[in-house]
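WARN retry 2 of 3 for item q-0093 after timeout on previous attempt; input resubmitted unchanged.
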Amino acid sequence: MPNTASDTVPGDVEAQIGERVFYMLRPGGAERETAVVAGQMPELQRGCLPVLLGCGLGHALARLLQCTAGPVAVVEKETGLQAITHVLQNLPAQERGRVTLVTAAQTAEALAELTHWQMRHGGMRLLPLALPFYLRLDRDYYGSLQKELAASARFDFWSKASGPRFVNDNPRVLLLTSKYFLMGEIEGACRKLGIEHKLVVIRDDAVARTDFVQQLLEAVVSFRPDCCITLNHMGVDVEGVLMDLLARLQLPLASWFVDNPHLIIHLYSRCVSPWTTLFTWDSDNISSLRAAGFEHVFYLPLGTDPDRFHPSKGASAPASWKADLSFVGNSMLYKVGGRLKNGRFPRALLLSFHTVAQQFMESDQRSVADFLKNCQPDTYAHYLALPDNEAKLAFETAVTWQATRLYRNGCVRRLLPLRPLIVGDAGWKIEFRHEPLQPRYMDALSYYSDLPLFYSQSVVNFNCTSKQMKGAVNQRVFDVPAAGSFVLTDWREQMGQLFEPDEMVCYRDPGEAPDLVRHYLAHPQERQRITQAARKRVLACHTWQHRLQTMLRHMREVYGIPAERNADSTAARG
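OK item q-0093 returned
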């Protein structure tokens, strides 16, 4: 038997099975291993994932690592051989990192591991390279793997994964799911519409990236989706790996921005792709997103779930929730403070912060960056000097949140003489601590379990929209009418695209709000008529099913052509 010192590779290995005795290299020596690689050189040059059946004494592996640049798999279920040969442990660290060792005792388990490895590396074809010693050692195992992997080498993953999209009347949808709350609504809309869908879960940890890509590739082959759907670019990596993968798969992605895309899209400058279509809840963003290079951009406002927000839900609400007037919302006090603390912005930006936020709140500018450029050139210069896009994004977000805080504070403060019920964080008590007329306070409520019950307990539900969406409407204008209650909201330009004038009551200036509240508290029949009209409109036009149908209609219009033509179009754009 050979020397087993940790730094020594034996000259040969003798194996005895029953009466049979044979050697790892003899006859032929090192060339017995390297010939296996040399004989497959044309295939290796075509691009593949080589799978070495047996590590041997390292001659074939060394040749393989020398003539290829990518990853290599080694199958060797006889783990004791590594303790004798030391081939893998003696490889340089850089070369060792390219090698994946499979030691599964069963053929099926080894194939499963190799398939996952294949998916992690783009689904390239597998090329088996069987060392003669291992075929003699266990033909049932290594011979079966060689046969199965040879069949895999003929498997054209990309042709099976790509193909025409939206060929059938009923599309198939891959949902890139995350913790974002609206993804549950999209999944529910799929079920209600009878749309076949499959989930690919996005976790927050960095380790999940490989698992996510693997899940995606496996789902594309097995489920054959027509498109993927995500929210706010969840699952899209800033390096553009997912975009490149989807383009190669010829699989379109619908990304629905339900927050200001310009507070997110900065991070994805390398992710512009004709295979991505953006949907935005604010039509003001369409032109700027197209200017950023995104060819396909559509307006898609928010909506509601009329099964969740239904008049009957309020029957089980606590009596303490009843109010003539209520407001549900975050004070933004702690959110702004946290962003300023964590942002570590330079002193010059901090000194001008409150003035900038106040003026941005009062302006018609949609973008913080454009506002600074046009109205605050000195601050804009300091903003441009921030080290990276993430820092700029953090400052824009801080300004937007502070503008929202100032706006909400001013709106709700005017209502204090009417003793509103304020539902939110503890920041409201700090904001109004010096006011002689104190509102009622209630802790924040769960969107899913509490708000469907709460809205119907208020005679008037007051709404003031975040300053991240100066022209769009928020979700409350859909949820409250669906729940059978009355909402008083600030006027937004896009309101006219969603409701008729007699279906929604709006104030154009916060100073108008108190008198409007008093009027509708005193006129229940008028209030009820408007509520019924608004609810009828919501049920007819503004549910999540309506939004999903609109999204898929646009996706069909853009991508519902043969994949060959789409691929030609992509090549032409490139």
